[in-house]
Amino acid sequence: MSNVKINQNVDLSDYKGVCVIAQQHNGRVLPVSLELIGKGRKLSDITGSQLHVVILGNKIDKTVEEISYYGADKIFYYEHNLLENYSTDAYTKVVSEFLIENKPEIVVFGATSIGRDFAPRVAARIGTGLTADCTSLDIDENDGKLLQTRPAFGGNLMATIICPVNRPQMATVRPGVMEKPERVKKVSEIKKMIPNLSKDDIMTKTVDIIIGMIKKASLIDADVIVAGGRGVGSKEGFKLLEQLADALGGVVGASRAAVDSEWIDQSRQVGQTGQTVRPKLYIACGISGAIQHLTGMGESECIISINKNPNAPIMKSSHLAIEGDLFKVIPEIIKEINFAKEQK
What we know:
Blueprint: E1 18-21, E2 24-25, E3 28-29, H1 31-47, E4 51-57, H2 61-67, E5 74-79, H3 88-102, E6 106-110, H4 113-126, E7 130-134, E8 136-139, E9 146-152, E10 157-161, E11 169-173, E12 189-193, H5 214-217, E13 224-228, H6 237-248, E14 251-254, H7 256-260, E15 281-285, H8 291-297, E16 302-307, H9 313-316, E17 320-323, H10 326-343
Parallel strand pairs: 1-4, 1-6, 4-5, 5-12, 6-11, 7-11, 13-14, 13-15, 15-16, 16-17
Antiparallel strand pairs: 2-3, 8-9, 9-10
């Protein structure tokens, strides 16, 4: 175990600008990276500073070019064959060295499995703090510090955290909570970098990459989500929701109550202590609509709720509310969907 020395007596004036650590997979930029670039642009405009983006990979020039249309002032593209697949050691080394040399005031990562893995290591390496799983970022109008807001105490309250002494101010941000920006005409400057990286820097070896059911389980990228709550009643009840999701080409989500009852895996949880989503269609089945859940899906384009209780909070937050037994309503919806498909 190594001892981490936290910076003392840091000259805050040495640190300027906002930096987004973008992520890509197989040459495809993750949506959270674009969301953070949009938010980073707003933060840099407030602070009167530049927005820089750092992205790591190998032969992803087209991906980097696509990112350049979303408002960053400069993109630092680190290209190396050892960065083709994610490695904790490689990513930590490259990003840490960039931050030490360039001294941005604010650094944000997406709170994906990768971001959650190496962001804390970067923070430890450079001797600063890290606020994890933020749902909101803002600038204090009095002293210019980054206000980092995240759920606390099981999502029962929101805590706003500041980093008054050390720099950079670092945070991981939950995917889906920021709005994706529109493409702009002004193209970012792209600076291709060759990192000082060798096999000796990497202590692990990737033997194989198994994709499995990751795509099916993804809530963040889904256009259609069929979510179940306490009203689904059991693990078997979710099979009906899976049928509806399959008919619509979507995925299944859940409220915390369903996850706590062990009817479905925690990776499917939507809400303040789960994932924040913005699908085109969100169908809430047997979900009462506690504020913690509404926070995670309230930005959906169209919300349909199915509930026996007409006074459930979710009914008032929906574009279309269906009062009824979900086990009677959903089969009828599936029947109509299949009929419509047969007519094409």
